[in-house]
Write a structure and sequence with these properties.
Blueprint lengths: L2 H6 L3 E10 L18 E9 L4 H15 L13
Length: 80
C-alpha cells in the first residue's frame, strides 16, 4: 500500500518523532557521500481506518508522551 492509496481511500495518518540520527545519505554533485550537517529527525507513521481520527490522536499522543523524543524547534518556544 502506498500513500496515494491511503489518502484516496480516506485512511487517516499521523507522523510522530521517534528521535534523531546523524546517518544521512546525501550525495554531492560528484556522487560522493556528504557528511551530515545536522541531526535529521526520524518519524513513525501511525495509520488508521477512515473516521478513526480520535483513536489515532490518542495512540500518537500516548506514544509521544511515553517515548519523550520530541524536541520543539528553537524558533517556536513552548507556550505559556
Amino acid at each position: 500500500m502506498n500513500w496515494t492509496t491511503i489518502s484516496s481511500r480516506a485512511f487517516t495518518a499521523m507522523t510522530v518523532s521517534v528521535g534523531f540520527t546523524t546517518q544521512v545519505y546525501d550525495r554531492g554533485a560528484a556522487g560522493v557521500l556528504l557528511p551530515p550537517k545536522h541531526l535529521a529527525q526520524v518519524g513513525v507513521d501511525f495509520l488508521g481506518l477512515p473516521l478513526t481520527e480520535l483513536k489515532l490522536f490518542e495512540i500518537a499522543s500516548a506514544y509521544e508522551q511515553a517515548a519523550k523524543n520530541r524536541r520543539p524547534p528553537a524558533a517556536f518556544p513552548p507556550l505559556g
